[in-house]
């Protein structure tokens, strides 16, 4: 590809990103429009690293039970909630995020996404451990199935010969997937950050009030993240058009934050760092954050689909060529996870594994 054609692609991609808004994938089109859906998913992963999913097929009663368990836990007195902590990394945490000094206006439960671990941890979380573990395991099973469907559609859209090449990593019995419930207490003050009618915000603007950050800017290290929230806003994704480093005319748009309207009937899907590496940078690990400026509490449930610790993460041969050389050296998920735990929340951890 010539320099001129590369520049043309960048301009077209930027215009397309601005015009489309946040991508929405309607799974009710399956199975008739499978090829169309796979194409749309690939485009969303390339342009944003993010999309929402409607008509996902997860029964409402599974979602409602999970939400009810979360609401009941976070309504407990602090002393009772602390019985489920501290997070090492699994357990109950409040304000502290990770081990390196990051903080946010939230409390959370983090669990391994396997039935035995959930059953064991339920004893310190819930008054009725069996009800809690059944609700969580049923929800994780449904969301994992959704994640696998999305990963297989993505593989088809990339024309990868084995459509299960991504999904089998999180279906593996030794998958390192995890599950998190975040609770953002209501703010006692309001700011224009969440009351503005515009979905866009620029952190560099001198007139912008400092936001109350619930969960700071970061990308997810895993393969794919599936999030659902209640009807309270706060989630923002950072829109930075791909391969935009040479376009100096619009630098003021660098780091433009887009608010994602809350919709409890839909799920949010995030490309993770491992997925970016597996696709040789074709898919983009989206940077995102949560603001906690609402007068109402926000709660979200998040499934992080990850491979086994010994799984090798490297660009698929199908996606490597003379024109698209390897961007990342091979590494195990265990190696990458160690790097995650040794860095700050906002660090670009994948840069540590780039080819020279």
Automatic annotation (TrEMBL):
This is Gibberellin 2-beta-dioxygenase 2-like. Residues 174-307 form the Fe2OG dioxygenase domain. Belongs to the iron/ascorbate-dependent oxidoreductase family. SUPFAM superfamilies: Clavaminate synthase-like (SSF51197). It comes from Coffea arabica. Pfam families: 2OG-FeII_Oxy (PF03171), DIOX_N (PF14226). PROSITE patterns: FE2OG_OXY. The keyword Transmembrane does not apply. The gene is LOC140014800. The keyword Iron applies.
């Amino acid at each position: 590809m010539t320099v001129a054609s590369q520049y043309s692609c960048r301009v077209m991609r930027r215009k397309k990103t601005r015009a489309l808004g946040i991508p929405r994938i309607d799974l009710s089109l399956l199975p008739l429009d499978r090829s169309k859906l796979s194409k749309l998913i690939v485009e969303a992963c390339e342009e944003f690293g993010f999309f929402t999913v409607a008509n996902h097929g997860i029964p409402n009663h599974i979602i409602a039970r999970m939400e009810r368990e979360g609401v009941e836990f976070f309504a407990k007195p602090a002393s009772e909630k602390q019985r489920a902590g501290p997070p090492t990394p699994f357990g109950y945490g409040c304000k502290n995020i990770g081990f390196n000094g990051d903080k946010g206006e939230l409390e959370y439960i983090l669990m391994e996404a396997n039935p035995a671990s959930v059953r064991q941890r339920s004893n310190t979380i819930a008054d009725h451990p069996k009800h809690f573990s059944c609700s969580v395991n049923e929800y994780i099973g449904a969301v994992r199935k959704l994640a696998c469907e999305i990963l297989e559609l993505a593989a088809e859209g990339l024309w990868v010969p084995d459509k299960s090449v991504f999904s089998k990593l999180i279906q593996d019995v030794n998958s390192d997937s995890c599950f998190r419930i975040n609770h953002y207490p209501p703010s006692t003050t309001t700011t224009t950050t969440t009351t503005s009618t515009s979905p866009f915000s620029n952190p560099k603007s001198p007139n912008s009030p400092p936001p109350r950050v619930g969960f700071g800017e970061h990308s997810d290290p895993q393969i794919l993240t599936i999030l659902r929230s209640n009807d309270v806003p706060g989630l923002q994704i950072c829109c930075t058009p791909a391969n935009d480093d040479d376009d100096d005319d619009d630098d003021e748009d660098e780091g433009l934050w887009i608010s994602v309207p809350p919709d409890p009937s839909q799920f949010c899907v995030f490309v993770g760092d491992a997925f970016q590496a597996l696709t040789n940078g074709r898919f983009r690990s989206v940077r995102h954050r949560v603001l906690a400026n609402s007068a109402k509490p926000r709660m979200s449930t998040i499934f992080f689909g990850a491979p086994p610790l010994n799984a090798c993460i490297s660009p698929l041969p199908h996606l490597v060529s003379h024109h698209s050389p390897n961007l990342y050296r091979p590494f195990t998920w265990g190696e990458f996870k160690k790097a995650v735990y040794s860095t700050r929340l906002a660090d670009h951890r994948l840069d540590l594994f780039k080819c020279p």
